Structure formats: C-alpha cells, structure tokens
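Figure 6 in text form: structure in, sequence out.
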C-alpha cells in the first residue's frame, strides 16, 4: 500500500501517522500469526513545520511478528533555521513502540550523506507525538575531529538543544563557526571539551548556557602581533534574550600559557588569570554594554569597571575603570613598560601601591585619578630615581577643580642626589601648571623652580616653559657627583625662561652664574632630546671677572693669582660628553690684580701643553715657590677626536701658555699644537694634585 500526495503537507495538529497509517494501527490490535508481515509506504514531496522543512520524503512502516513496528524514513534534504546549512541524503531506521499516544524509538540508526559537519553514522533514539512534539537523541556526532552527543526537543515551535562534546579540534571549529571572525591566514589549534544548552522559539534562540574547556591552545596571526602558546582556559557563559537584547554573565579563567597581544605579554603558570563580566548585547545597534566587569591578574593587580563598546569597530565608546595594585613593579613590567619603549622611562625598577581610576570616552583617555603610596622608581640606566612618593594625581580632559599633590622623600637626577620635595600642580585638558614654586634641595643648596607650565600633552606635541634659581650649590658636591677634580665654593645663578618644544629645549636670554668671584654667562642654549638616552647640548659661554686664586684653590691645580676671562664658543655635548668646542682663556687686558704662579701650577701647565712636566724642582729654580707672570693664555679647539691647542705665538713656532715677568722669569712654552682628545683627557687625569693622582 502506498500513499503519494501531490501537494506539500504542512504539519499541524493532525500528524502524518494518523493520516496515513490509521489502518496499520488498527492491525496492531488484531490477533495475527507470528510470521505475518505487513508494510505500508508514504511518499511526500515536501513536509514542513515551524522553522524546518524536508524534501522528497519516503516513509515505510512495517509490522513483522507480534506487535513489532518498524519505521524507515529517507529524505533528500532537511533544513532548519538554526542550522548553518542543509542536510542531504538522510536515512533513518528505527523500531517503534506506541505508548500513551507516543511513538518511541530506543535503538535507531541515522545516516547522513552530507551536512555542514560532514557525513554521519549515528545511533539515535527519541519520541514522536506529532510534528510539533518531537525528541531526538543522537550519540557520536562527528564534529571537528571529535564527537558530540546531541539531545533535541521540539514542543509547539519551542526547542531545547543540549550538546556535549569531547576532543574537538579548534582549528576545525574555527572554520565551521567563526571563519568570519578570524583574520585571514591566521593559525589556530587546540582541543576543547564542551557542554552547552540552547533553547529558543522557531528560528530565534532565547537562552544559552555554555562551558568550554580548552587545552594546548595556540594562535598566531599573520603579522605576529597576537600570539598564544600552550594555553589552557575555561569559559563559562550564561546568556538570555530579553526582547531584542541578550543579557548574561561570562567568566574566563586562564590557567596556563603564554599570551602576547602587541605590545603586552602575559605568562600564566601558577595562579589563574580571570575575567568576569555582566554584559548586555544589542544586536540592532551592534553595541556591547559591560555593566560590571572584574579582572584579576595574580601578583599584579585587580580591576573593576564598566564600558560601552561598538562591536562593529571595536571602539570603546565609554569606560570607567578602577584599578588597584600592591605591586607597582609587576604592574609596570606587564602593562606600562611595553607602552613606554623608546622613552626615558622604559627601563625602570618600581615598587609600592597604586590605586587608579581611569575614564575613557570615544576611544580616548578622559580622566585619571591616582593615589600613590610609597612608590619608588629607579631607572636601571642611572638617569633618575624617585623614592617614597605619596599623594594624589588628578587629570581630566575637561576643566575641573581637583588639584594634584605629590610628596617625594628624595631621589636622583643625572647622578645628582636631591632631598624631600613637595609638588602642588593642576592638570587639565592638555596642560599641567605648578600651583606654587618648588624648592628642590640638592648639592647642599637649592634649585628653586619658580614656574612650570606644560601644554600640548593631548596632541603628542608636548611643550613646556619654566624658570628657576640656583642658590648655594656646593661645587665640591657637584664635582663629586660627576667625578670631577675637587672644587670648592658656592654656585649661584638665575635660569631665565626655558622652553621645550618638538623634543628641543631652549632658553630665552642668558643663564647667569656667579662663581669664582666673577660671572659665567651661558647663551644660545639648545638641548635636543633632553629626555632621551643621548641628549645633545649646544651653547655659548662667556667668562668675565673670574679670580684665578679661587679657581686654582678650588681645583687644587697649583696656586695662581690674577684675573681670568674667556669664552667657549660652538660648545657641543652628546650624552654630556664634549664633541666640539672652541675655547679661549686669558688674562684680561689692564688687569690690576697681582700676577703670581706657583711652581706646581707651572709644572701642571707644562704637562698639559707638552705631555711632560717642567722639571723645575730638579733645577736651581726649585728654590722658588712662586713666580711673577705677565699674561696667561690657552686656546683649545675640539672637533671630533682631535684637539688643537694654542696660546700666544712664539718666534720658534711654539706658543706661550704663560709669559713670564721679572726675575727669575718663567715662560711656559708648548710645542704640540694637535693632540688626540683622549690623550689630553689622560694628561688632565694624570696631573698630580696634593700628592694624589686624579681619576
């Protein structure tokens, strides 16, 4: 017997078995011989219900033996709104039992020739009331080189789907479900276990519970900007649809592996890194609302916050983040140092406690509030150090009244130690301004910063201006800090308006330094990359009214009396080491001070000009401790590695460094006009001072 409708059958409250096989069901109630066999067949061009449809269906029902009913179903294709593609070549063989108007299949076989997940040979079971009430269990579904057990229940348009998977390969899963999300030619591997429950109505999913455990996770994009190795993590997701939005909770726990996302690198070994989120997704606006999130990086920091993210571009529309760390060093190494590579602060040892509140808007930093507790920063290259920092920092892109106050117990800048300092400032928009002068104790004196104003911080074009005064700076302490020959005395001076722009620091006017009884004026000051690793300085210096007695006493060079003037033109330093200069030092014309020079000073000047001392102590002149002189003059020009020396011309081709006067007369005449700069430095280092060799 065969029934072949010519039209499509849309399944409603009358199910197909009642329509086509009522007679066969009646046969089940009649006494039959055990060897009797009866078959009925039904062919349907199309069979459909809410959200699904079958094409070219053939159903055969057979009664073999006593009350043994068998169903054989074949279909050319099957489509469901929840599936990413069609299923073809379907065959189902299932022995049926009728219990309370429900057909039950406990030991069926299902074969599929083609599906989005490949061919399938499955063991199935289930229950069938009608096309709106159906339960299917399938075991061993082949997916991503692993297996999944599937339980599907349909009830008047509603559906519940349970999945449990083992040994799923991420590479295949990525191709099947996330090909549009993964960058082209990226590498993904790993193995996953999955437990998931989904439910919905017709074509609309409404709820998702997912647990995903991944081992041996590895990933790399083509550019190498995102890389993962040996990853292990667990993802728990619970989401429910509310209207057109999805709301839910997510927890990600990374228990092992190395993860790099330019410029950040994280290695997880002992304690898991965790991320928790209460989120809302609005598909219509492609908007992700993070109502509450928590991130814990063990031994580094923990943070909480909220955010709004445009999923179409990945831009953070707004965010509020509260971050706390008792290990400022670990926080710096993980998050700050990678962003500071190439800057002055890219190699710092840090410690202390930091509590920070950060605001973001439209992908830009909007505001920062930070509380510092015993923060210590020490540059490993020795450029700077800050110890015992406490206080608060406040900055906002908009105008605001909050002030910043930082106290520093002490520190170091370019090998110069400084003492306690208090800083009061106001930071808003793209500028920072001192609220009051800052007194910086250093070198037994004070550097008073009268004003400091920086701007352009938001457009990557920082510029600032400042002015300061130098009071009672100890030359002895300055010499010790830079490993110079010993000096004595105090340094006083004023620093006029200094400005910084486009990585260049310049000065308006002159820097005036009162020292050695006279004045040193520095003009045309320019420092390129002052905050870099290799700063370069250019300047011109004028010396006037200096007292040689104070200078030679300061440097222990040997005693000289008289006045001194001079200039240093075209001065060029790199990393604070001389590269070039054109210098002249001489006795001023019409100098009225006494001109006296000691035997030791003569010997040292001779050694400087000729490489060997005068040897006065071994001659009869050794009985004289001092000599009179008429004029002193020394010229030195450095260009690269060679220094040109000169003084007052002498008739035999040499030059006077000291032109004597009176009896006994001593002239210091040098012959060498060119000398390697390193050699000249060695001569300076080897000058014997008070019985000790200067290093």
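Output sequence:
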């Amino acid at each position: 017997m065969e029934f072949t409708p010519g039209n499509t059958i849309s399944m409603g409250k009358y199910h197909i078995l009642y329509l086509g096989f009522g007679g066969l069901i009646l046969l089940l109630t009649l006494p039959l011989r055990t060897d009797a066999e009866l078959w009925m067949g039904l062919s349907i061009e199309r069979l459909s219900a809410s959200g699904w449809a079958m094409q070219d269906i053939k159903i055969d029902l057979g009664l073999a033996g006593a009350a043994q009913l068998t169903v054989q179903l074949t279909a050319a294709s099957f489509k469901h709104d929840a599936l990413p593609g069609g299923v073809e070549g379907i065959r189902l063989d299932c022995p049926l039992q009728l219990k309370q108007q429900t057909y039950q299949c406990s030991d069926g076989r299902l074969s599929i020739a083609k599906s989005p997940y490949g061919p399938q040979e499955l063991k199935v079971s289930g229950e069938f009331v009608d096309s709106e009430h159906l339960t299917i269990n399938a075991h061993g579904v082949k997916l991503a080189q692993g297996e999944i057990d599937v339980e599907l229940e349909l009830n008047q348009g509603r559906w519940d789907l349970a999945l449990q998977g083992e040994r799923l390969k991420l590479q295949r899963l990525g191709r099947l479900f996330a090909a549009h999300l993964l960058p082209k030619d990226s590498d993904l591997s790993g193995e996953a276990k999955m437990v998931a429950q989904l439910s919905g109505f017709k074509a609309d999913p409404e709820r998702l519970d997912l647990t995903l455990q991944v081992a041996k996770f590895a990933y790399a994009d083509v550019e190498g900007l995102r890389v993962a190795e040996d990853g292990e993590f667990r993802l728990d997701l619970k989401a429910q649809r509310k209207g057109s939005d999805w709301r839910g909770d997510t927890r990600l726990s990374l228990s092992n592996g190395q993860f790099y996302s330019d410029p950040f690198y994280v290695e997880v070994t002992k304690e898991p890194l965790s991320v928790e989120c209460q989120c809302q997704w609005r598909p219509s606006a492609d908007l992700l609302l993070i109502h509450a999130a928590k991130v814990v990086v063990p031994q580094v920091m923990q943070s909480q916050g909220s955010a709004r993210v445009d999923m179409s571009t990945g831009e953070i529309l707004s965010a509020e983040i509260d971050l706390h760390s008792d290990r400022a060093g670990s926080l710096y190494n993980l998050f700050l140092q990678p962003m500071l590579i190439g800057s002055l602060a890219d190699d710092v040892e840090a410690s202390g406690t930091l509590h920070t509140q950060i605001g973001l808007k439209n992908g830009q930093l909007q505001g920062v509030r930070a509380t510092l507790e015993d923060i210590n920063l020490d540059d490993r290259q020795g450029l700077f150090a800050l110890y015992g920092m406490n206080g608060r920092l406040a900055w906002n892109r908009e105008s605001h009244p909050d002030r910043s106050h930082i106290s520093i117990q002490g520190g170091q800048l370019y090998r110069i130690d400084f003492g306690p300092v208090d800083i009061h400032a106001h930071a808003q928009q793209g500028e920072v301004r001192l609220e009051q002068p800052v007194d910086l104790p250093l070198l037994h004196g004070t550097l008073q910063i009268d004003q400091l104003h920086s701007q352009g911080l938001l457009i990557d074009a920082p510029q600032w201006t400042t002015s300061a005064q130098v009071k009672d700076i100890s030359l002895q302490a300055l010499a010790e800090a830079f490993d110079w020959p010993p000096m004595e005395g105090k340094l006083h001076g004023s620093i006029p308006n200094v400005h910084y722009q486009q990585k260049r620091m310049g000065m308006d006017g002159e820097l005036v330094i009162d020292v050695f009884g006279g004045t040193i004026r520095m003009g045309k000051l320019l420092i390129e990359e002052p905050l870099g690793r290799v700063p370069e300085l250019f300047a011109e210096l004028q010396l006037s009214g200096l007292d040689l007695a104070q200078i030679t006493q300061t440097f222990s060079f040997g005693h000289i009396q008289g006045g001194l003037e001079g200039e240093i033109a075209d001065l060029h330093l790199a990393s604070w080491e001389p590269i070039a200069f054109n210098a002249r030092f001489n006795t001023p014309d019409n100098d009225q001070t006494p001109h006296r020079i000691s035997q030791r000073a003569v010997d040292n000047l001779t050694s400087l000009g000729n490489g060997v001392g005068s040897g006065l102590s071994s001659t009869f002149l050794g009985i004289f401790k001092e000599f009179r002189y008429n004029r002193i003059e020394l010229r030195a020009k450095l260009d690269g590695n060679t220094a040109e020396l000169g003084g007052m011309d002498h008739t035999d081709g040499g030059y006077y460094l000291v032109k004597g006067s009176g009896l006994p007369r001593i002239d210091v005449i040098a012959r060498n006009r060119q000398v390697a700069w390193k050699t000249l430095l060695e001569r300076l280092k080897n000058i014997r001072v008070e019985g000790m060799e200067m290093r």
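Caption detail: The helical segments are 16-20, 22-27, 170-177, 328-336, 475-481, 548-555, 599-610, 677-686.
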